[in-house]
Write a structure and sequence with these properties.
Elements (H helix, E strand, L loop, with lengths): L19 H18 L7 H4 L7 H18 L4 H11 L14 H8 L2 H24 L5 H14 L12 H15 L6 H13 L4 H13 L3 H26 L18 H10 L8 H17 L3 H20 L22 H12 L13
């Protein structure tokens, strides 16, 4: 068979080797995925109507984090400052997870604002460079590389806003993306260290580390899996110390969180990711379909990095759909930094699927007369 021309990527997609029946099932799965993404249209707008650029409830959270950091800068102990700010804002103080880990507030209190902003933009640049290096081999032509740059900038729109520097998801999300890009078979120490840093800023980054540990184990990378496991143990120890410190500044009369069992479904994840990226400027139904196509694109990239990114998005989709409340839609920032880049793999993936699904090879029977 004559090799198929590739539109964008340097190698065929993961679907190029599927049988006709499996390709048809994959197309059906894509249709079902896009239909599920449109369930975002039924999500209540009360919270997610606010964009990731910082308004409404999210702005209130930003004011809280800035007040905590200001208290630490003024000489207060972090936990005293956090408890005071939470009570002043009528936030719940129990369980201990209502207190963010102290790392970000302590660092920001110790350095001037310009240094914080410089660190943020440096981290954005490092993330872009790391992903550009990983994607360069997969995208040998200049046009898909330009498209990738634009999609990456669209994914990073919230992370380029210095006024969001007090937001824990901004830093943790970038660290997760950087860690994922730096990880390679046989080279994982830097990725593990950065993943640990992400967890110490925002606890929900532990989902990323769990995914990486499981993927490494399934691929037979036992030492790497143990490295990710060690990072989780360090994080668990820090979380235990954090819980003890919180117990020293709270009491039984402090308000308790209503919980995190939001049960808002997959559509809520789709909408949350949309408003966390440049897709927020589009009508929701278009943005929802693009989120679905991006997931499809990551799944189609025949590379371990593409598979990891797809699994990571799927795990956070499950977590956000089950546990995030309407006012915590910004959890999607944890996986937003390069989420839209999956769209660059869609053209070749669709072509491969349709070619395989419509394959009707003719069998020629030759009669041999002796």
């Amino acid at each position: 068979m004559k090799p198929r021309r590739i539109f964008w990527t340097g190698t065929p997609s993961r679907f190029a080797a599927l049988s006709r029946n499996k390709a048809r099932l994959a197309l059906l799965a894509l249709v079902l995925l896009l239909a599920a993404c449109l369930s975002a249209l039924s999500v209540p707008q009360s919270a997610t109507g606010a964009s990731a650029s910082g308004v409404d409830q999210e702005m209130t959270d930003l004011a809280l984090y800035e007040r905590v950091s200001a208290g630490v800068k003024g000489g207060d102990n972090y936990y005293v400052s956090a408890a005071t700010a939470l009570r002043a804002g009528r936030y719940p103080l129990r369980p201990f997870l209502t207190f963010r880990l102290p790392a970000l507030a302590v660092i920001q209190a110790a350095i001037p604002e310009w240094a914080t902003n410089a660190m943020l933009f440096a981290l954005v640049l490092a993330t872009m460079i790391a992903w550009g290096a990983r994607l360069g081999a997969a995208l040998p032509r200049w046009l898909p590389r330009v498209a990738t740059l634009l999609l990456m900038l669209g994914s990073l729109i919230a992370f380029l806003q210095s006024e969001l520097a007090a937001f824990h998801e901004i830093w943790a999300g970038l660290l997760v993306a950087l860690s994922l890009a730096l990880r390679r078979p046989g080279r994982w120490i830097e990725a593990v260290a950065i993943g640990l840093a992400a967890m110490l800023i925002r606890e929900t980054a532990a989902l990323y580390v769990v995914v990486m540990a499981l993927m490494a184990w399934l691929e037979g990378q036992k030492r790497e899996a143990l490295g990710w496991g060690a990072a989780l143990l360090v994080f668990a120890a820090v979380l235990g110390v954090h819980a003890y410190a919180v117990s020293g500044v709270t009491g039984p009369l402090d308000a308790r969180s209503p919980g995190w069992l939001g049960l808002n479904g997959f559509g809520f994840f789709v909408e949350s990711l949309s408003v966390s990226t440049a897709l927020q400027i589009l009508p929701l139904w278009i943005a929802a379909l693009l989120v679905g196509l991006s997931l499809f694109g990551w799944a189609s990239w025949n590379d371990s990095l593409g598979l990891r990114m797809f699994v990571l998005l799927a795990v956070y989709a499950l977590a956000i759909g089950l546990f995030a409340r309407l006012d915590t839609f910004y959890w999607a920032l944890m996986i937003a930094p390069v989420s839209l880049v999956g769209l660059v793999f869609v053209p070749d993936a669709l072509r491969d699927l349709f070619v395989r699904a419509l394959d009707r090879r003719r069998i020629t029977v030759t009669k041999v007369t002796r």
